[in-house]
Each structure stands twice: as C-alpha cells, then as structure tokens.
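tool=predict chain=A
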Amino acid sequence: MKNIFYSSILIMLALFTISTQAQTRASGKSNYVVLTKQIPQLKPILLAAQELAKQDGHHFGDFQVVVCGKAVQNLTNEEMVKDFISQAGQANVTINACGFSLKKFGVDHEELHQSLKVVENGILYNFELQKKGYLSIEL
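tool=predict ok
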C-alpha cells in the first residue's frame, strides 16, 4: 500500500513538472520568482537576475521577488532599500511585499516606497506564479 501511495505521488509530481515545463516553453520566455525573508538577500537575488537576463537573452521574461516575514519591516527604511530599488528598476525586477506579513508586523503599506508592490499572500502568489511556469526558489 505504501508503494502505491509513493508511486502515485511521484507520478503526480512528474506530471506537474512536465506541465510547468510545457507552459514555460510555450511562452518562449523564462520567468522567475524568489521568495525571501531577508533584505540583505536582495543583493545576490538582483545579481542573479542580471546574470540570467544576460544568459537568457531575448528569452528572459519576468522576474519577481516576494519579501515575506519580519523583513517587511525593513522595507520602510529608505536608506536600507534605496539601492535595491534602483538595481531592481534597472534589471526589470519587481519587488513585492507580502500583505499578510505587513499586517502581522504592523507595517502600513503607505510607508513603502512607491515602486514596491503589495501582494495579499506572498506564499499563494508564489504558488500561482509556479503554476504559470515560473521557476521558483525560496531563500
């Protein structure tokens, strides 16, 4: 019975992976999403986005970053995030803040830099993008 259960899970994962790869190939673009809980991680994330843009060339698509957890408190610190916001703009990277995290840690979305977007639920948003064929990683 265990073997049947594990085999079923493996088959479902394989089908999901094949479907995701097919969606990505159909669009002709490589799209990426990164979920992070640490503001300092934005630097290597943005460097990776720039390098992927070079490697992918005209196949480079959308690159989204979602900041979740306590790190959203730091998104109101202009000094801390101004360089990241500038780099993200130059690299065509969208930085999003998790709305649930903003609420949990008492951060008013009005205090965020105007270029930052707010998504209601960062984890759900990540899954939705994965279903659309985005490659995803969590840091």
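The chain has five helices and five strands. Helices lie at 2-27, 42-56, 78-90, 99-104, 122-131.
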